[in-house]
């Protein structure tokens, strides 16, 4: 038995424990700082309590006027997961806008496809009611309300662009595209700006899907007057393909 080596090993274990403890404390502090200006709230919509997380920039004052970004989670996720996955709060803090992360019922959004459909839930009117609530509760510039989301949340953003364009100024989507049912019924009174981000190696929503959508949007842009299609006014957009 080598007492000296045993003592050295104990010292190393103690040092590693201290480092780990310090790291955990830092992470907890960072989490606390990130959530200091975030709070959970809820509204009753169609007899269902719908909750959401609101993040305010540190400089928020009731006398200001702030843009609002509605950030929607993907299928199977939730508002808390989206808040940390998207890492939008630090951007909101520096760019001075408010973010709201709503929760979909059963961790999904009724965005126009069967695989995320929840009977009896109208997410378009819920988001509309959420916007009204946010405008009433906070100092929000109602002409600067934007929707974005990941996957199923991106699909929902496209649906809002078609069915809630009177309240949504523009949308952005990561991996989520427009469902066939929304595509076939979409008719807006104005062009709605789109930012779409998609990975070329996405195994769930293939890049060919967004390529087809982009081709359609470009066709509308170049020959909108000659095409009597449902999306004839839905013609402005930008797509970012991320190579993997």
Protein architecture, described:
The chain is built from seven helices and eight strands. With 244 residues, it is an alpha/beta fold. Helix 7 links the parallel strand 7 (194-199) and strand 8 (238-242). The radius of gyration is 22 Å and the shape is globular. The termini are far apart.
CA-CA gap between termini? 54 Å
Shape: globular
- State the low-pLDDT regions, or none: 1-10, 23-35, 220-237
Q: How many strands?
A: 8
Radius of gyration: 22 Å
Which range best describes the helical content: under 10%, 10-25%, 25-40%, 40-55%, 55-70% or over 70%? 40-55%
User: Counting H and I runs of at least 4 residues, what is the number of helices?
Assistant: 7
Kindly estimate the percentage of residues that lie in beta strands according to DSSP.
15-25%
Q: Order of strands in the sheet with the most strands?
A: 1-2-4-3-5-6-7-8
Order of helices and strands: HEEEHHEHEHEHEHE
Largest sheet: 8 strands, mixed
> What would you call the structural class?
alpha/beta
Summed over residues and divided by their number, the pLDDT gives a mean of 79
